Amino acid sequence: MFKNYLLIAWRNLRRHKGLSFINISGLAIGISCCILIFLYINDELSYDKYHKNSDRIYRPIAYSTIGGETRVFARMPSAIAPGLEEAIPEIEASARLFQFGVLRFMHEDKNFEIPETYAADPSFFTLFSYEFIAGDPQTALQNPQTLVLTEDTALQIFGSVDAVGKSISVPFRGRNQELHVTGVVKNVPRNSHFRFNLVLSINTFRQRGDNQQARPDFLNDPIYFNNFSYLLLSESADVAEVEEKIAAVVEEKWGEIYKKEGITRRYPLQALTDIHLKSNFESEIAQQGNIQYVYIFSVVAVMVLFIACFNFINLSTARSVKR
Q1: Closest by alpha carbon to 117, among 11, 8, 195, 21?
Q2: Torsion angle (degrees, nearest 10) of CA 159, 163, 167, 172
Q3: How far apart are CA 144 and CA 167, in angstroms?
Q4: Per-residue burial over 281-317, b = 16 or more CB atoms within 10 Å of its CB, e = otherwise
Q5: At the N or C end, where does the chain have fewer CB atoms within 10 A?
Q6: So what's the pLDDT on residue 13?
Q7: What pLDDT sits at residue 5?
């Protein structure tokens, strides 16, 4: 019987070629548009979910009020994350990421300029799940004058991903300083709210001392926004309770300092997987997406599919009535 239905359908298609082409093409285009929109939405919603503990990683956001005006920053003072980790049991680990920009250096008499370079705490590669080709994520950033490269950056500099133990020469205060490669990771996935080519150990970054980072206590500063901080919460942690504890710790540790400066601060948490679509803060680490576009395209997809199906049914019904 099914074969008979197919035969009848084929005869109708041949008998009404023009109308059938319009009918099927309209439905096919509508479905194709919906598939493309679905792929876009799925990609936008997938950001940072490849990390093993993506559901437990949060980024504190800085709400700073001065003279009645409140501003919201993605960057954090450097003292906050380690201070919170020390004081709050639900915070299993923390990592700070300092945006370095372009790193200029030499290797074998060749000059290189590598964009998207950062400095990070030793815990950075254990908090996040970047795949190591060579090196140990536990120790890669422990010592000063060390760095981790992505595979493309290693190929660009050394012509091979076998770069651990090799070094680059960075000009610093009138002399060249040797930095040693301690790890190579696979290229950062495109669906990340930030991407890097090179990560220095935080002690190396401190020793370079550019601009405000030249201050001796820049790693323990509770006021100036100079890094992006990430916290790993325990599996049993309640985010609302952790935020209450953060407020209490901030008041206890730095409340007097803020009072003297005439500022008030609070540091609510933002889920790692929300950063790409739900961030509209000052000093963001990179340009992010917008959840409103996801909503708009979702509505468009439903409308396109509805119109395509409606037209298909209408044309098919009209042809049946005519017969």
Answers
A1: 195
A2: 80
A3: 13
A4: beebbeebbebeebeebeeebeebbeebeeebeebee
A5: N
A6: 53
A7: 47
* Cα–Cα distance, 101 to 119 (Å, whole number): 10
Q: Using the 8-state DSSP alphabet, how is residue 66 labeled?
A: E
- Angle made by CA atoms 43, 49, 50, in degrees to the nearest 5: 100
Separation in Å, CA 262 to CA 166, 221, 226: 49, 16, 20
Do 112 and 155 touch, CB atoms closer than 8 A?
Answer: no
- Cα distance between residue 138 and residue 178, in whole Å: 22
What pLDDT shows up at residue 181? Answer: 96
Q: Is the pTM of this model over 0.90?
A: no
User: Which pLDDT score is estimated for 40?
Assistant: 96
Distance CA 171, CA 107 (A): 11
| 263 close to 65: Cβ distance less than 8 angstroms | yes
Residues of the chain with pLDDT under 70: 1-22, 172-174, 205-217, 312, 315-323
Predicted confidence at residue 211, as pLDDT, reads 47
DSSP 138: T
Predicted confidence at residue 214, as pLDDT, reads 45
CA 48 to chain centre: 6
What pLDDT shows up at residue 90?
98
Cβ atoms of residues 148 and 125 within 8 Å:
yes
Residue length of the chain: 323
Could you tell me which residues come within 8 angstroms of residue 104 by beta carbon, excluding any fewer than 6 positions away?
111, 112, 113, 170, 171
Question: Which of 106, 87, 85, 109 has the alpha carbon at shortest distance from 96?
Answer: 85
Quote the pLDDT of residue 213.
Answer: 45
Separation between Cα atoms, residue 111 and residue 264, nearest integer Å: 45
Q: What is the Cα Rg of the chain in Å?
A: 27
pLDDT for res 28 = 85
Domain ranges of the chain: 57-274
